[in-house]
């Protein structure tokens, strides 16, 4: 399968090996396995040079994923590159660190009995969402079967702002997606609309802590309260899964009073991305259930672990162990106070930068970065001679990657820019970005008509 839009571009079938003296005329095939070996230095140079055109990760305000870790974490990860997470028998200490991380998260999210923590690491929030969704579906099937009712038409209720992983879940596991559209200034799910879509075939409601579109928190407690009321009125009992891909690593530190986690009895499971605000390089997510009952036994497989049986629940079998070691390193290294400082700094940068951008004149804030350290801005209605897509393009000329995109159903008219502030993005970098934006505006304000629209935008995929 090769469907990348750029794959169709006419390119030579040969790759030049020119960067090294004496190899000026040497080429290797681009799309075929070369017939013979290359020296490691030459092979390294070719791959290294090819990657020069990738963007600079530190200037990428599109991604939520970690782009900076400490050198000690780099070293630890390099030491663990060869460890396979599934080989619990060969690497019992890596398995132990995974288990400690699950306990730490379970406690951080107020599970009723964190000593019985139930959960696992995954490749990211997408895999975690699949596992969370599967547990919801299986529990619903069991309840329905026990009641002698049909299990033909499961549905899952969520806002249209959910990340694409939920669309994948619904598609791969034959679950109807019931989407609450955006409405006016409401850009995410609310309690009233969520409950309207629930019925006896609803396996759960997904509430997102930290919407991918604008960084806003969905009102998890209100959604749970409305579902409590639904149960009282109709007997229909719908559990909630919190997609905390980003927010489950922000709210515990910066909004400790906010009840969005297992303090709410209706919350059955929570996923997060260790590789987002968990501050680990790409390749690790987490899912935790409130207790063992929330994860049906028959979804669990058993692997041999030091002569014992160890439960696993995962889509892949082999998976890198390095990210799990790095997650545990961060937990030790930062502790509660350290995570609070790092996330607090990101939120400071986001709120200060959003205020500066609001003062530039043509922009209006959709969010200000005071929930996730992420904010979205749109252009004022009076601005007709340039678009957010023009702004995104102009910033790219200086190396900044600031995605522009249109909102989904019912607000397709709304086009926005989104900035994700992560560890490694300092006040200083933010000032430079705002300065470049100011300079770009001087040019854009003089142009007669827009030059870019949604069809030429790169958008965001996170
Ligand atoms: C709310 C939300 N859920 C799920 C995901 C998917 O996460 P991952 O990239 O870890 O698979 C994202 C990614 O941005 C997200 O923002």
TrEMBL record:
<feature type="modified residue" description="N6-(pyridoxal phosphate)lysine">
    <location>
        <position position="276"/>
    </location>
</feature>
<dbReference type="InterPro" id="IPR010107">
    <property type="entry name" value="Glutamate_decarboxylase"/>
</dbReference>
<keyword id="KW-0456">Lyase</keyword>
<dbReference type="InterPro" id="IPR015424">
    <property type="entry name" value="PyrdxlP-dep_Trfase"/>
</dbReference>
<dbReference type="GO" id="GO:0004351">
    <property type="term" value="F:glutamate decarboxylase activity"/>
</dbReference>
<keyword id="KW-0663">Pyridoxal phosphate</keyword>
<dbReference type="GO" id="GO:0030170">
    <property type="term" value="F:pyridoxal phosphate binding"/>
</dbReference>
<dbReference type="GO" id="GO:0005829">
    <property type="term" value="C:cytosol"/>
</dbReference>
<dbReference type="GO" id="GO:0004058">
    <property type="term" value="F:aromatic-L-amino-acid decarboxylase activity"/>
</dbReference>
<dbReference type="InterPro" id="IPR002129">
    <property type="entry name" value="PyrdxlP-dep_de-COase"/>
</dbReference>
<dbReference type="GO" id="GO:0006538">
    <property type="term" value="P:L-glutamate catabolic process"/>
</dbReference>
<comment type="similarity">
    <text>Belongs to the group II decarboxylase family.</text>
</comment>
<dbReference type="InterPro" id="IPR015421">
    <property type="entry name" value="PyrdxlP-dep_Trfase_major"/>
</dbReference>
<dbReference type="Pfam" id="PF00282">
    <property type="entry name" value="Pyridoxal_deC"/>
</dbReference>
<protein>
    <recommendedName>
        <fullName>Glutamate decarboxylase</fullName>
        <ecNumber>4.1.1.15</ecNumber>
    </recommendedName>
</protein>
<keyword id="KW-0210">Decarboxylase</keyword>
């Amino acid at each position: 399968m090769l469907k990348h839009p750029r794959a169709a571009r006419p390119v030579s079938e040969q790759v030049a090996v020119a960067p090294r003296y004496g190899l000026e005329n040497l080429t290797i095939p681009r799309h075929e396995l070369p017939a013979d070996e290359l020296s490691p230095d030459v092979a390294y140079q070719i791959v290294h040079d090819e990657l020069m055109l990738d963007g600079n990760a530190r200037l990428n305000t599109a991604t939520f994923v970690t782009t900076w870790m400490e050198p000690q974490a780099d070293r630890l990860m390099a030491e663990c590159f060869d460890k396979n997470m599934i080989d619990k028998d060969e690497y019992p200490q890596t398995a132990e660190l995974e288990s400690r991380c699950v306990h730490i998260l379970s406690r951080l999210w107020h599970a009723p009995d964190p000593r019985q923590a139930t959960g696992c690491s995954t490749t990211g929030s997408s895999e975690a969402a699949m596992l969370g969704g599967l547990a919801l579906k299986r529990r619903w099937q069991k309840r329905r079967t026990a009641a002698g009712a049909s299990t033909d038409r499961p549905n899952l209720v969520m806002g249209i702002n959910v990340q694409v992983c939920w669309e994948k879940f619904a598609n791969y596991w034959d679950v109807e997606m019931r989407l609450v559209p955006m409405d006016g200034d409401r850009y995410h799910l609310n309690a009233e609309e969520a409950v309207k879509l629930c019925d006896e075939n609803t396996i759960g409601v997904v509430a997102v802590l930290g919407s991918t579109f604008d960084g806003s928190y969905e009102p998890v407690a209100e959604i749970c309260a409305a579902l409590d009321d639904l149960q009282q009125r109709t007997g229909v009992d719908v559990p909630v899964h919190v997609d905390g891909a980003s927010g489950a690593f922000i709210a515990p530190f910066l909004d400790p009073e906010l009840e969005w986690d297992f303090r709410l009895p209706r919350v059955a499971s929570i996923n997060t991305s260790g590789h987002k605000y968990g501050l680990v390089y790409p390749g690790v997510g987490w899912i935790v259930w409130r207790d063992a009952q929330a994860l049906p036994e028959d979804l669990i497989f058993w692997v041999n672990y030091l002569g014992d049986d160890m439960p696993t629940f995962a889509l892949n079998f082999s998976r890198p162990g390095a990210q799990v070691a790095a997650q545990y390193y961060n937990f030790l290294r930062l502790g509660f106070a350290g995570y609070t400082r790092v996330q607090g700094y990101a939120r400071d940068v986001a709120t200060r930068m959003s205020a500066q951008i609001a003062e530039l004149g043509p922009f209006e804030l959709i969010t200000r970065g005071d929930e996730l350290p992420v904010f979205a801005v749109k252009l004022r209605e009076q601005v007709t001679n340039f678009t957010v897509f023009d702004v995104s393009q102009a910033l790219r000329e200086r190396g900044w990657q600031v995605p522009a995109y249109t909102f989904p159903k019912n607000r397709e008219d709304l086009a926005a820019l989104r900035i994700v502030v992560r560890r490694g993005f300092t006040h200083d970098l933010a000032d430079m970005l705002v300065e470049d934006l100011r300079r770009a505006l001087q040019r854009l304000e003089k142009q007669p008509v827009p030059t870019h629209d949604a069809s030429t935008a790169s958008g965001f995929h996170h």
